[in-house]
Amino acid sequence: MKNVFSVLLIGVAFFKLTVSILNPNEIVTLFGAEVNIWIYRAIWLSAGLLSVYSINKERNKTSEN
């Protein structure tokens, strides 16, 4: 179940990053607050990369056993 959440988060992060690049705005709304576009992209990129790292860590743990 944990991997399903991570894969969904990767998909959402990829979608949000793609949309933010194709429709460039200076300021976007995140959780009701206005945020600079670069901070917004960094937040979603971090979420996606952490999810990839989590999946990779789980795969390495299961392959060692």
Task: Offer a few descriptive terms.
transmembrane, elongated, 65 residues, alpha+beta, single chain, 2 helices, two-stranded antiparallel sheet, membrane, transmembrane helix
Largest sheet, in brief, is: 2 strands, antiparallel
Terminal residue distance: 20 Å
User: How many E strands?
Assistant: 2
Briefly note the structural class of the backbone.
alpha+beta
* Percent of residues in β-strands: 5-15%
Sequence of secondary-structure elements: HEEH
Give the strand order, joined by hyphens, for the main sheet: 1-2
Number of helices, counting only DSSP H or I runs of 4 residues or more: 2
Mean pLDDT across the residues is 89
The parts where pLDDT drops under 50 for at least 5 residues are: none
Helix content: over 70%
How many domains make up the coordinates? 1
Taken from the alpha-carbon principal axes, the silhouette is: elongated
Alpha-carbon Rg, integer = 14 Å
Care to describe what's here?
This protein is of the alpha+beta class. The protein has one domain. It is built from two helices and two strands, in the order αββα. It has a two-stranded antiparallel ribbon. Helix 1 (about 1-20) packs antiparallel against helix 2 (about 35-65). The radius of gyration is 14 Å and the shape is elongated. The chain starts with a helix and ends with a helix. Keywords: Membrane, Transmembrane, Transmembrane helix.
